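Milestone M4 deliverable, item 7.
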Amino acid sequence: MTGEQSKVPTEYYRSHGILSDPRSQAALYLELPPGAPALARTVQGLLIPPYGRILAMFGVGEGEFDNARFGVRRAEDLLKRIQERRPGPLVTPRAPKDRIGAICRNFTFLQVSMLRHQGIPARSRVGFAGYLDRDGMVWWDHRVTEYWNESAGRWVLCDPYIDDVRKQKDGLSLDTLDLRSGGKFLVAGEAWRLSRAGGRDSDSFGDSPADRGFPPIRYALLHDLAYLNKVELLGNDDWGELLTKPEKELTQSDLAFLDHLAEVTVDPDANFLEVRRLYTESAYGRSVEEKVQALEAQAPRS
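Output delivered:
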């Protein structure tokens, strides 16, 4: 991609989407440290994965913290909840019990919100991580940050969900601040293409032990389309017929659409206009947009 071509997607991802804007809480971002690595550490001091094994690493009991589970949809509301739990500058790490429990979506979403506020192009990506399963047998549904590194002239995948405590406890040696170097994260389009071509068993991808194979890959693929259009859905936002349709009811037209979607989302910069078109014109994209707009209209204003 030439420099002129790359300007369109980078400029698009430099600004907030409807959910990532901190709005009334924007003053909290004034003292943030610059850059993705520092912001990853900042987010890790505010949120905590709400799972027993991980909580035990931090000495936190199940009922001792504010568990948002799937997370909070709007950045403004998440920042309010962080301040309600423990007021103070965001750069001040909270004790583990004073962090907000949330899954990977909120970790990457909050970092992306901070990056965009600093004028750094950033987007959340949906895919599958091969480093969350200690046996390495299953690649689990995961959301990470992708930001534009101006000096390197490339997009960098960064996982703020994995901090140094977890890396040490789980013996992870990969660079979670630049995941492309380890090859342990696949965007959803890559997982779909590999599985469709028989290069990877679809059951090696999953959202839970009971939900593996093509359904969770399709779910991730459609969510990635929304994320690339700056609509960072919660993990349980199962909107749109194509996302919930039983596997046996998929038509050839459905599969052709999903194959095309996988193709363009693997390289969203080269296919930027098509990524935008598929969201605005597809039945899935329209379903998501209508739901988000309705929820936004109901959201209280400070």
